[in-house]
Amino acid sequence: MEDIEDVLGPAGLAGGGAPPGLRLPLSTVAVKPKRRSSRVAQTPPQPEARIPGTQTIYVKTFGCSHNQSDSEYMSGQLSAFGYAITDEPEGADLWLINTCTVKNPSQSAMTTLISKCKNANKPLVVAGCVPQGSQSLKELEGISIIGVQQIDRVVEVVEETLKGHEVRLLSRKTLPSLDLPKVRKNKFIEILPINVGCLGACTYCKTKHARGHLGSYTIDSLVGRVKTVVSEGVREIWLSSEDTGAYGRDIGTNLPNLLNAIVAELPVDRSTMLRIGMTNPPFILEHLKEIAAVLRHPCVYSFLHVPVQSGSDAVLTAMNREYTVGEFRKVVDTLCELVPGMQIATDIICGFPGETDEDFAETVNLVREYQLPQVHISQFYPRPGTPAARMKKVPSNDVKKRSRELTSVFESFSPYQGMEGKVERIWITEIATDGVHLVGHTKGYIQVLVIAPDSMLGTSADAKITSVGRWSVFGEVIEGSVVVGEAPKQTSSELQKEQKQNQVEEAGCCGTDSCGTCACSDAVQHCSPEQCGNTPDAPQTSGDVDRQEAIQSTLVRRNVEGSTKASESIAASPLVGKEQQVNVVTRRGVSVDTILWCVLAVSFAVTVALLVLLTGKISSTPSY
């Protein structure tokens, strides 16, 4: 079926039509009823006639934080129209699958889920990068699909699909509004897309086919969104895109301008923190000092994800990455020098076509030298339609061997060593899957697990690190240190002045060992390549999906319940705009032995009391 475009009148999308975020009348969506196959003897069951907006929708998301944000926007619109959103597929009236096209495993998982949906005779809508980048995929035949820039039309697509129609909305020239209704997976975390697409042309990347060329939101629209979510009680803002560093190059601005404008709107009491998303080396090289200044700000996590992909310049050239290993080193060295407690994460692809043993050895040496606390290791997956898919492949056994070797080298590091006894400020936003620990992060985004009541979600506190493991650190919240509040807003100039003062204070009193993060610690320690590897970060991961899930099974965080619509979120909470002290009540476990001894003691005491009572009655009974 041909793509069905929006019908907005002579002016088209660029001129006329409904403003972004407004729901267009159903008459503007062209649909095509599914044809009955002559090979089918019986007529397939027709969907039950029900009032639109009363059904239950199962939403499943694959891929990056940008995809997660898209799912939250789609869920928000559906919920605002009356649909119920569920995590249980069995009882849902329709399935909405938001897909990822980066690697083969994620697309294979999508295919499996589509088959399950068809076998269950459920209406299905597929969204995300797979239908956008592979519109003619066989698995998508006869299924409604919605493109990555059409998420503001999801209600119409769902309605028509429930009626038994097949709808395809893929092409668009404008970005979806940032002010659409939104149901956050975690009500304390706002994922904010600052742009779509990128300026690169990596030979292995399929995402460019889906997300397209760079398209940036204006600074005013992004700052407006930040103001809104801060007022709603959001405690972490994640800036997300395919390449954060490229932001603004299509609209005459740049990333430092955006970051400075956003930081000016963050509460000065540090109740809301900003996390900068992934950036490739080429587009931040000219802004390193400005980026470092933002990363030093008290309300910004001192953390950045900078993919290197390979330690060999020859492989980087084949990948068309547009930078050298030396330029990656410059990014890491400069940020670690200028930002106390700086944390760097990176990505590695093992077995890219043409990678020799010598090329791989250079990658291993780079990882050993810097010992970065977070390295995402993956095997090369040829994606259909990309130049790399046509290149001569490295034997699969060699690819697997290299992946295992690099993973072994990475896991030999001890990034958490030396943290015991230190006191760190942490921001608590999630609950661990064990149902016991809360998950907090230091200013360097080091994950800290603490035992504390759920009332501490959305707060910050000082925590003393009590023990360390390979994949996480554990701490105890210091009583009386938990504060939730929003100080009065200040002007940009006042914030800039305060930021300079804070930087001076950091130079005198902030820092932890080996690139560790701090809010206010002992002394400054600039991060050398060796130091960068000795500091923890978020849980380390490898490219082996099964191994990654096994290692982090106890660290994967349960979603915070109570996700709300943007219009009904925690803006009404009495905590916002007030300062509150939270008394920490730890969950202490009682051993089985203690319980048994208590039961025995009570039983013995009751027995003795009964014997005494009976003896007294017998002695007082008159004899005849």
UniProtKB/TrEMBL annotation:
<dbReference type="InterPro" id="IPR058240">
    <property type="entry name" value="rSAM_sf"/>
</dbReference>
<keyword id="KW-0472">Membrane</keyword>
<keyword id="KW-0949">S-adenosyl-L-methionine</keyword>
<keyword id="KW-0479">Metal-binding</keyword>
<dbReference type="GO" id="GO:0046872">
    <property type="term" value="F:metal ion binding"/>
</dbReference>
<keyword id="KW-0411">Iron-sulfur</keyword>
<feature type="domain" description="MTTase N-terminal">
    <location>
        <begin position="55"/>
        <end position="163"/>
    </location>
</feature>
<dbReference type="InterPro" id="IPR002792">
    <property type="entry name" value="TRAM_dom"/>
</dbReference>
<dbReference type="InterPro" id="IPR023404">
    <property type="entry name" value="rSAM_horseshoe"/>
</dbReference>
<feature type="region of interest" description="Disordered">
    <location>
        <begin position="1"/>
        <end position="51"/>
    </location>
</feature>
<keyword id="KW-1133">Transmembrane helix</keyword>
<dbReference type="InterPro" id="IPR020612">
    <property type="entry name" value="Methylthiotransferase_CS"/>
</dbReference>
<keyword id="KW-0812">Transmembrane</keyword>
<protein>
    <recommendedName>
        <fullName>Threonylcarbamoyladenosine tRNA methylthiotransferase</fullName>
        <ecNumber>2.8.4.5</ecNumber>
    </recommendedName>
</protein>
<dbReference type="InterPro" id="IPR005839">
    <property type="entry name" value="Methylthiotransferase"/>
</dbReference>
<dbReference type="GO" id="GO:0035598">
    <property type="term" value="F:tRNA (N(6)-L-threonylcarbamoyladenosine(37)-C(2))-methylthiotransferase activity"/>
</dbReference>
<dbReference type="InterPro" id="IPR013848">
    <property type="entry name" value="Methylthiotransferase_N"/>
</dbReference>
<feature type="domain" description="Radical SAM core">
    <location>
        <begin position="184"/>
        <end position="416"/>
    </location>
</feature>
<feature type="transmembrane region" description="Helical">
    <location>
        <begin position="594"/>
        <end position="614"/>
    </location>
</feature>
<dbReference type="GO" id="GO:0051539">
    <property type="term" value="F:4 iron, 4 sulfur cluster binding"/>
</dbReference>
<feature type="domain" description="TRAM">
    <location>
        <begin position="417"/>
        <end position="479"/>
    </location>
</feature>
<comment type="similarity">
    <text>Belongs to the methylthiotransferase family. CDKAL1 subfamily.</text>
</comment>
<keyword id="KW-0808">Transferase</keyword>
<dbReference type="InterPro" id="IPR038135">
    <property type="entry name" value="Methylthiotransferase_N_sf"/>
</dbReference>
<dbReference type="InterPro" id="IPR007197">
    <property type="entry name" value="rSAM"/>
</dbReference>
<dbReference type="InterPro" id="IPR006638">
    <property type="entry name" value="Elp3/MiaA/NifB-like_rSAM"/>
</dbReference>
<dbReference type="InterPro" id="IPR006466">
    <property type="entry name" value="MiaB-like_arc_euk"/>
</dbReference>
<keyword id="KW-0819">tRNA processing</keyword>
<dbReference type="Pfam" id="PF04055">
    <property type="entry name" value="Radical_SAM"/>
</dbReference>
<keyword id="KW-0004">4Fe-4S</keyword>
<comment type="function">
    <text>Catalyzes the methylthiolation of N6-threonylcarbamoyladenosine (t(6)A), leading to the formation of 2-methylthio-N6-threonylcarbamoyladenosine (ms(2)t(6)A) at position 37 in tRNAs that read codons beginning with adenine.</text>
</comment>
<keyword id="KW-0408">Iron</keyword>
<dbReference type="Pfam" id="PF00919">
    <property type="entry name" value="UPF0004"/>
</dbReference>
